[in-house]
Amino acid sequence: MAFYKKSKQKVNGKWYPRSVTVGKPVTTDEVADRLARISTVSRGDTYAVLKELGGVLGDCMADGRTVKLDGVGTFYYTSAANGQGVDTPEEVSAKQITGVRVRFIPETSRNSNNQVVTRSLISDNIFWEEWGGNDKKTSGSTEDGGSEEEGGQSGNPL
User: Fold this and answer.
1) HEC string of 26-80?
2) Dihedral sign, CA of 22, 23, 27, 31?
3) Nearest Cα to 72, choosing from 42, 104, 29?
4) pLDDT of residue 45
């Protein structure tokens, strides 16, 4: 079951549903246990692979490559530049880059009309219910896909 709460946008004063997450994040141990139960791989082996996955993805993307994981999606780097930009191509340099973000596109499948019919990581049977619990343990999704902790600010860490 997925949850939402009512949220008023500062920009236009309109109300919208905003998804919220509840409880603690699912841990690497929990994911490893679940993968081990549905495969022939041991929990320890699964855990070891999951623990190293972030470093391997980072290394591949640092080499200028995107990483496409079947059934998951594609990860890639984008850069953020400071200032107003420069006037000529000759002035562009790496010194302008002030941050790096990891972007993710979920894997999709398309029908014969080239329309997206499924997107990985999105269940076909999401049931949305209004959140009525303690807001201090929830975080809401922001428009850019990040998260916004209650009482905090959304951010895009480098």
Assistant:
1) CCHHHHHHHHHHCCCCCHHHHHHHHHHHHHHHHHHHHCCCCEEECCCEEEEEEEE
2) negative
3) 104
4) 96
Taking CA 153 as the corner, what is the angle to CA 152 and CA 156, rounded to the nearest 5 degrees?
135
C-beta atoms surrounding 3 within 10 Å = 19
pTM of the model: 0.68
Q: Which two tokens stand for residue 1?
A: 């079951």
**Mean pLDDT for the stretch of residues 103-129:** 81
Confidence check: pLDDT of 141 > 60: no
At 5-46, the pLDDT tens digits run 999 999 999 998 998 888 898 999 999 999 999 999 999 999
Q: Give the CATH superfamily of 2-149.
A: IHF-like DNA-binding proteins (4.10.520.10)
The domain spans of the chain are 2-149
> Cα separation of 129 and 124, whole Å?
16
* pLDDT for position 119: 74
